[in-house]
Amino acid sequence: MKRYAILMLCLVATVLSGLAGAYKVDEIPNVHVANRTRYVSNPDNVLSPAAVATLDSTLSRLWRDTSSEVVVVAVNSVDGDPDEFATELFTKWGVGKKDNDNGMLVLIAKDDRKAVIRTGYGMEGVLPDILAGRIIRNIMAPHFRNGDYDNGTIASLTEIARITSTPGATEELMSKYGNDEGAGGNGGADLFKGWLAIGAILAVVLFVWFLYEMFKTRRLDRYERYQVLSKMKMPALILVFA
User: Which has fewest Cβ within 10 Å: 1, 121, 168, 204?
Assistant: First the structure.
């Protein structure tokens, strides 16, 4: 009995340990928000750094050439049904452009022995569920069964990139909205917008100050008023150019 009880306790501890390591949707790190050159969330190191770099490069080109948004999440385990988890995560992250919903989420749950490809409505015409299923069964699964998650994921995303980059597909997926890829690419634009906002605020402040000084000096004689207002030449020039 004691041996049986110990065995049961070990089994329960193993199950609880596995559940503790299962990710909830809110716990998956969205690496693209932190760094816009990254498209692969790999917190458990299911994929090697070299594989992640290859995937980031592939998905970056795909975003640039088709404007479609494809991200990969690779973890050991997820909390709940992986299909429902992928749908919830896809919705939470808002993957895809708002005009044609051209997003895709590829979820790999290693210990759950499950892979899911979730697409937006605008992507379904190019990559329907039946084709996504074939990619999982014929490309991912054979590699994954051998423990080769790197090549299974790279080969699958390479095929997805090929399908979505064909001329007809590219036209269907292309959005009127620009990509946010490349921190360096958008960094200059973001910096310019920041300076523009600061300039607008400064212009308003100077304008209000200028009106205040004009109002305050209205009862002075001409000479005194000239002396006060002449000190405002430089701020006035700044206001004009702002």
Answer: 1
